[in-house]
Automatic annotation (TrEMBL):
One protein family per Pfam: DUF2805
Domain of life according to the entry: Bacteria
Matching InterPro entries: CHP03643 (IPR019882)
Listed name of the protein: TIGR03643 family protein
Amino acid sequence: MSETLSLADISRIIEMAWEDRTPFEAIFRLYGLPENQVIKLMQRQMKPGSFRLWRERVAGRKTKHQALRDPRISRAYCPTQYKPR
C-alpha cells in the first residue's frame, strides 16, 4: 500500500483523513485505499496520541462516510481545496 505511494501522496491522504468533510470514499477514488487501509496508514504515520485523537474524531462522523451523509451534499470539498500533484 504505502510502498507505492509517494511521500506527497501520503501527506495528502493524511490531510484528507483529518478533514471533516472529506469522506473515506474520496480517498479511495483518488488513491485506491479503502477505509481500513487509511486507518492503518494513519496509525503507522502518526504518533500514538495523535492517532487516538484522530480515531475519536472520525468515529461515527457522518461526513466521513458518504452513505451516512445528507444526500443534498454532492461534493466533499471546495474547488480550490486540492493542491496540484
